[in-house]
Amino acid sequence: MSPLPATIPALVRTRVRAAVRRPARLTPEEAEARTLLLRLCSLLLQYPDADLAAARPVLTSSVAALPPSPAARQLAAFTDWFTRQETDALERHYVEMFDLRRKSSLYLTYYLHGDTRRRGMALLTLAQRYRAAGWDTDGGELPDHLPVVLEFAALTGPGRGEAPLRQHRRGLELIHRALTDADSPYRHVLAALITLLPPPTEADLLAVAELAAQGPPNEEVGLDPYGAGEFAPPGAFVPPEQAPPTLARPAETHRQEDR
């Protein structure tokens, strides 16, 4: 979007920009397809344990039934690979991509706040957002885990439901870039998700480049004041077994180490 004239009052400029970035009003059919896309992305980004592996035929047929779109094509490319892999190979690849690489961690607030106390407050705010919408995650995962954020978006809708995704757009771009650099088929799931979001601004792209080069912010003090480890950074927190509606990977795989 080209810059708005400086003569336009600041409040008006802000509202115009917000309108441009706000999701367009959807028809009931479009809303249903979008909800299914978000839920499929949530499922496909969960740890591929035996239950998820067994559901691959249903997931593949659900993707094939989606209306044609760039997002649907990306998910079809992923499920084509997903269905041809042995379960143990899927598990190893998932751990390699999401548990052992900081730049493709699925914990979104890490990219915005890094290992700082601000991350604890961001997690608390996100959990409060879920409760205010009447959604209880049962504490099976941190509230910023991408499959959880996607499930909330699918349940709540494009407005406030997708607000956390828009807020963490830069983190999503970085995950997609890292997965692409690693030639991981999971890049297709992130690409599908990104097609549902407003286009990145120049500031977004610059911030992603800076994150890729320098990493998120860091500080010596931990996040203990916000829950005695409950909101610890990746690598320090071992979440309990995942509860519905999302599926979790085994707790012992939750490590975040630089390659």
Give the arrangement of secondary structure elements.
Elements lengths: L9 H12 L6 H17 L5 H5 L1 H9 L5 H13 L4 H13 L9 H5 L3 H16 L13 H11 L6 H5 L1 H13 L5 H8 L7 H13 L45
Helix pairs in contact: 2-9, 2-12, 4-5, 5-12, 11-12, 11-13
GO molecular function: metallochaperone activity; unfolded protein binding
Keywords: Nitrate assimilation
Protein name: Nitrate reductase molybdenum cofactor assembly chaperone
Fold and architecture overview:
Helix content is 54%, strand content 0%. It has 259 residues and is an all-alpha fold. It is globular, with a radius of gyration of 18 Å. Residues 1-6, 10-21, 220-248 and 250-259 have low confidence and may be disordered.
The overall pLDDT, averaged over residues, is 80
Work out the helicity level: 40-55%
User: pLDDT under 50 segments (min length 5)?
Assistant: 1-6, 10-21, 220-248, 250-259
CATH architecture assignment: Orthogonal Bundle
Biggest pleated sheet: none
Shape: globular
**Quaternary class:** single chain
Provide the gyration radius in Å.
Answer: 18 Å
Q: How widely separated are the two ends?
A: 38 Å
Q: Beta-sheet strand percentage? A: under 5%
Q: In DSSP terms, counting alpha (H) and pi (I) runs of 4 or more, how many helices?
A: 13
Structural class designation: mainly alpha
CATH topology: TorD-like
Please give the number of β-strands: 0
SSE series: HHHHHHHHHHHHH
In short:
This protein has 259 residues and is mainly alpha-helical. It has helices spanning 10-21, 28-44, 50-54, 56-64, 70-82, 87-99, 109-113, 117-132, 146-156, 163-167, 169-181, 187-194, 202-214. This is Nitrate reductase molybdenum cofactor assembly chaperone.
